[in-house]
Amino acid sequence: MFTLVYGNDLFDFPRLANEMFNDRRVQFKEDLGWDLDIDPEGREIDHYDLMNPLYVILKNDHGRHLASGRLLPTTGPTMIADHFSDLTDDVAIESSLIWEVTRVFVAERGKDSVRNAARLMWGGAQIGLRAGVEFYVSVTPKYMTRVFAACGWPAEIIGEKVTEKDGHLCACLWEINEKNCDALARKAKIDAGSIDLRVHRKPIRAPQTKALNPAFLPPVAPTTPVASKIC
Amino acid sequence: MSTHLNTILEHLQTLPTLGGFGGIIDTVRGTYDVDHVTYYAVSLGIDARELEQPDVQEFQDIDGVILQTGRKVAAVSYPQDWLRWYVEANFHESDPVLLGASASFDPVDWAELSWDSRDEREFRSQAQEFGVGNQGYTVPVRGPGGQLALFTINKQCSQDSWQAFLAEHRTDFMLLGHFMHQRVLKLVGVEQAASARPLSAREKDAMRLIARGMSRGRASEALGISENTFRVYIDSARHKLGALNIPNAIALAVHRGIIPPV
Predict the structure, then answer these.
(1) How far apart are CA A94 and CA A31, in angstroms?
(2) 3-state secondary structure (DSSP) of residue B47
(3) Prior bond of B79 cis (ω within 30°)
(4) What Rg, from alpha-carbon coordinates, does chain A have?
(5) H helix and E strand count, chain A
(6) Taking CB atoms and an 8 Å limit, are B142 and A131 in contact across chains?
(7) Cα-atom radius of gyration of chain B, to the nearest Å?
(8) How do the pLDDT tens digits run along chain A, 231 residues long?
(9) Cβ of residue B216 closer than 8 Å to a chain A Cβ
(10) What pTM was estimated for this model as a whole?
């Protein structure tokens, strides 16, 4: 159901990684019209992807990409502190107890999309809880706040703005606790105890920082976005 | 804020040199009633000065050592026989904890690592023969310039009581790992601390209200923000000041003239 993998190890999951970066292109570049770089293989990869983030990836029964999010600790570079502190009263949010989630993607498919979003958020909440982290923060398009609320874990809006380039953006905040995890598990209709949430961990290998260089990921033929063919 | 953290903070604040760091390890060990505690700076970053001769000191009271060499510092309460054998057997090349945590920023519960291969199982059984507990939790701490430190709690206990223990203390361990790393950077004279960013006007406002003894609820109301947003701002200020808890952050902010004394 889940693949939890650091950026440096993504090339252990080349197909899944390619699907995720392709789906991100469709959602953020094509649908939302954000000004993002797309590589020659059609993948949306930005410089935060090169900082060894932890990806939470939800898969369908056939191992295909359904939903995903990207986690980074706020003790290092983050989108919200580097580019959107105008949404947080000029406070650059940084703490070992606060992580950032970005590029949240959920395949659109009727009722299932809410359930998938809830499953993804449950996975993310569990990882934060297990790490002793107290809050997630994120800058997301406004419409995603309705998805979060439908999942049973509404985001608090710290600040918002309407931009010509990126549309209506919100700085979101979630408190991580057992109660919120339980609410998500109910919406996600999952038996929390039965799901494997271990992070894929591998020994360090050289050259570590080059891992996400597109040359390391085998190219794939351009496909229809996976979002439209999930059944 | 847990009383455990206050105990350790009091000890840390009086620490004049790295030589006393073994005492901190012992304080953490006693405070949380665990078998072993280690702090290991795999790299102090590119700004750390290189030492040619390793500086090794033994803890006075317990079976542990402080090692400083090159850009590495370790303060480890494991039995010295185990440390010697670890080095001699080159376990740093295959230790699943070291390798797994070095590639992560989320903490590693040893039970969730792969112990499938013969070498991994052999390593674990040897460690336990030398007195290392069966359960472990390692918090990776990352910083600018390639800094990486690993803070580990080790305990001999059943899986159930270990899970309950972690559920109670994991936020403390996250804070402690980062805070100990900041102290070590200061003690070895590395300038690149947690944050280079100054406090914003809003963070100073939040600190001022808390310093006056206002509750979080009332202070957040006064600033017109939610209580959780207030907590996030206060915690960002705490982190930037390099403090372990809010009272410590207020004291530092007053001392540095960032907010006025009450």
Answers:
(1) 31
(2) coil
(3) no
(4) 17
(5) 5, 8
(6) no
(7) 20
(8) 999 999 999 989 999 999 999 999 999 999 999 999 999 999 999 999 999 999 999 999 999 999 999 999 999 999 999 999 999 999 999 999 999 999 999 998 666 889 999 999 999 999 999 999 999 999 999 999 999 999 999 999 999 999 998 999 999 999 999 999 999 999 999 998 899 999 998 754 444 444 444 444 555 544 444 444 333
(9) no
(10) 0.91
- Virtual torsion, Cα B239, B243, B248, B251, nearest 10 deg: -80
C-beta atoms surrounding B196 within 10 Å = 9
Asked if the model's pLDDT at residue B191 lies above 70, the reply is: no
C-alpha distance from residue A218 to each of A55, A155, A196, A204 (Å): 19, 37, 27, 20
Rounded Cα distance, A139 and A84, in Å:
8
Nearest CA in chain A to B145: A76
Q: Is the ipTM of this complex over 0.90?
A: yes
H/E stretch holding A79 = helix A79-83
- Looking at residue A26, the DSSP 8-state letter turns out to be I
Contact A135 B232 (CB under 8 A): yes
The β-bridge relationship of strands B108-109 and A65-73 is unpaired
Q: How many CB pairs under 8 A join A and B?
A: 124
- The two tokens of residue B230 are 């207030």
> Is some CB atom of chain A closer than 8 A to the CB atom of B106?
yes
Is A209 an 8 Å CB contact of chain B? Answer: no
Contact between A122 and A134 under an 8 Å Cβ cutoff? The reply is no
| CB-nearest partner of A90 from B114, B202, B235 | B202
Helix (H) or strand (E) holding A157: strand A156-163
Could you say which residues from 119 to 138 on chain A have a Cβ atom under 8 Å away from some Cβ of chain B?
127, 130-135, 137
Could you tell me the strand order of the sheet in which A98-106 lies? A156-163, A167-175, A135-141, A98-106, A65-73, A54-59, A2-6, A199-200
Beta strands in A40-128 (DSSP E): 54-59, 65-73, 98-106
With beta carbons less than 8 A apart as the criterion, state whether A70 and A4 touch.
Answer: no
In single-letter form, the type of residue at position A63 comes to: G
